[in-house]
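Subject: Nudix hydrolase domain-containing protein structure
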Amino acid sequence: MTQNSIVLVVSVSIINGDEVLIIKENKPFAINKWNFPSGRIEYKEDILEAACREVKEETGFDVKLTGTTGVYNFISSSNDQVILFHFTGEITGGSLKIEEDVIIDSKWIMVSELMKFDNNELREPSVIRQIVDRLVNQNIYSISVFNEQLCK
């Protein structure tokens, strides 16, 4: 099998107290899989703007990005090389309204509860487990490692 492409993706853990919002996707290669709100960075789009846009499209929430757990590089189930930029964020507006054609469910859970999910329930289990480990251990880095542009 050959590599299809290199895909740039943003992902956001929306934190509310001790809980995080997860979504259940209904996308090709991710049917009935739990994930953080995420999606591809569009051509000429700023990484931070992409993260805020994806959250808004998939959840209805406006967010302020507060930190990053890092950058992850992996081969996806569709055989793309994915470079994923993961952020933490907090809600600043909007209301929960999932994008029904690609998101079939959402829920707030304790961050540590994600470690109890079976691998077949998660979009990219090894990556999600790395992110959750960093969230639980508070290995969150300043958003200033990216540019200073803020979400509108």
